[in-house]
Amino acid sequence: MRVLHTSDWHLGRVLYGRKRHDEFEAFLKWLLATLAAEQVDVLVVAGDVFDTSAPGNRAQELYYRFLCDVAATGCRYVVILAGNHDSPSFLQAPQALLRALDIHVVGAVSDDLADELLILRNAEGQAELLVCAVPYLRDRDIRLAEAGERTDAKDRKLQDGIREHYARIGELAEALKGEIGPVPVLATGHLFAAGGQTVDGDGVRELYVGSLAHVSASVFPPVFDYVALGHLHVPQKVAGCEHIRYSGSPLPMGFAEAAQQKQVCLVDMMMDGAHCQLVIRSLPVPVFRSLESVRGDMDTVLARLQALRLQNKPLWLEVICDTDGLASDVRQALESAVEGTQLDILRVRHNRLVQAVLQQGEVDESLDDLTEQQVFDRCLDAHEIEGERRDDLLALYHQVVQDMGDQVREASEEALS
Fold it and tell me: What whole-number distance in Å separates Cα of residue 237 and Cα of residue 32?
């Protein structure tokens, strides 16, 4: 069996307010071409298909159009698991219809653990692959909460719950193999493995509130021939194990991921008697939109922007600059530097302003510890803005916040309707 392992598509994700539908569409077209060219039998999506639990219409359209087009590639099965970003009920709503197309969706843990066991059979009814299709295990699925519980006790219960879940489904897989004969066993997961590599700003959330609950490779029983993981965006092996892998996200979720070579994992699973042999290849994913982070003092930043102008290529930019200038003056200078080009500045971070804001508070304080209002007040203090001008800026700030809140509410109501 030839399996293509992917995860963390995050369809519908925006980057600093910019929609990325064109990138997602280009990736899905590339994925369809890859399924056909590599003669893939099984496509696995190990969670976080969508970026939110209520994806917009365009994200849904891309998803369902892709599923309709998979059959034409020769790929015979699709296995989709819910991640922590996904709504289990939303993913599972068309479950029965999709199953008729050999598209298997597992959104959440059910009362019957056997629901997570999939036997993929050929046209003659012979078993070809056994899949332990484990979705993201939510807190309520794997532990009983207790009042006044300490964080370390909660972490231990979460890890024990994850370990027990995989042990139980591993036992079921062993028993089922005894009935159907020797077949490869593939398991999935959407979790944070201990020692897993992340990057700042990648949008990877902690899976359990107030807890780390990072699991070790030992939670996966030896019956699993390959473990297809999702959640971490950096492609990597777990604890050096060839057969336990994160495919990573196919698109950079933020500027911190821009320099990564994104990939998917192509896995050939071949039975040699009672043992499964693996051949694993990483297939690089093309760059569908270039991102770059430009850092330094104002002269360094402007020099880099001038060099990028000469390349005359479309590029989304993040600028992180060290300067004593007013934020508005910095932004104006940067916009002038890219005017008339295909360079688009999505974000400007004024490093010294951030440092000035934080210096007014506690030593260990970060921006995450402050409300938006506190940050704005400290920005005004940092620039020594007082009197009538301060009142005017505060009034404008409050109007902007109110307008943004109205837009978010309207978008949420539209998505729910």
Answer: 25
Domain regions of the chain by residue span = 2-284, 291-384
Closest CA to 48 of 35, 37, 59, 36: 59
Task: Output the pTM of the full model.
Answer: 0.81
193-222 confidence digits (pLDDT tens): 877 676 665 556 555 444 455 788 999 999
Dihedral of CA atoms 288, 253, 411, 87 in degrees, nearest 10, equals 110
E strands, 107-164, in order: 117-121, 127-132
CATH class of residue range 291-384: alpha beta
Is residue 110 classed as helix, strand or coil in its secondary structure? coil
Share of the chain above pLDDT 70, in %: 84
* Domains 2-284 and 291-384 are alike in CATH topology: no
C-alpha triplet 195, 143, 244: angle, nearest 5° = 30
Q: 401 CB contacts (<8 Å, ≥6 apart)? A: 372
Class of 2-284 per CATH? alpha beta
